[in-house]
Amino acid sequence: MKLRKILAAVAAAAVAVSMTAINAFAATVTIDSEYPGAWGASKGIPKSEFEAIGGDVKVVLTVETKEPLVGTHNHLAKPMNMCVNWDAITDNLTSDTAIAKLDGFFVFAEGQTSLEFVVPESVWSEFKGYVDAEGNEDDAAGLYFQVCDVIIKSAELSAGSPQAEIERVTEDESAQVMDGTYTRSTAAAPAPADTAETAPAADSNTQSATTGNASAAVMLSVMAVAGAAAVAAKKRK
């Protein structure tokens, strides 16, 4: 009876820790509540949010497509290191699902509500703030978007890994994407990384700088306690 109570208590603790561990290293950033205007710039995802996660970062945007006042829809958003320039950085991102025009603008289907891609550490580490005449950099560094007929409402950031090369489309094909009539290509995803390389040991005392959740090592320690408790209980019988 005592053994069952011990195992039940430890199992409950393990479940609680595992649930927080799953959500570790994640953050949600609010971006725009209103449309910035055709070809305007969105608010940014601060570089500090990428730094808090570290490594390659998966970004999932929550978006709302918007109908123009005049003409046909043109749902587009170009990722950029805006404080440096407004050039697209799409070539340096990866995504299994996103579609972009040849000029680097992501293309959204009418009614699409999310978009996922991965920003490599080598890319977000180059995000810069505005520099004044004295060479002082402000804290505006981050990922921004030039938008048309789409509102980027928020972004969820979490630890990521490289996905496929982003599929590119022509102007005519982008219209098909927006209308929901485009057929995706079957380009293969990149080969997985060599798993023979030993990963660095997890720091069991480290908490997410963004969420404060416990690391996966804590869950392993709970499992170890469960095993020890079971052995001790058997010895007392």
Note down, in words, how this protein is organized.
There is one protein chain. The protein has 237 residues and is α+β, with helices and mostly antiparallel strands. 26% of the residues lie in helices and 23% in strands. The protein contains 5 helices and 11 strands. It has helices at residues 2-22, 47-53, 121-124, 171-179, 216-236, and strands at residues 26-30, 40-41, 45-46, 57-65, 76-80, 99-101, 106-107, 114-119, 142-148, 150-159, 167-169. Strands 2, 3, 5, 7 and 9 form a 5-stranded antiparallel β-sheet that branches. Strands 1-10-4-8 form a 4-stranded antiparallel β-sheet. Strands 6-11 form a two-stranded parallel sheet. Helix 1 runs antiparallel to helix 5. The radius of gyration is 23 Å and the shape is globular.
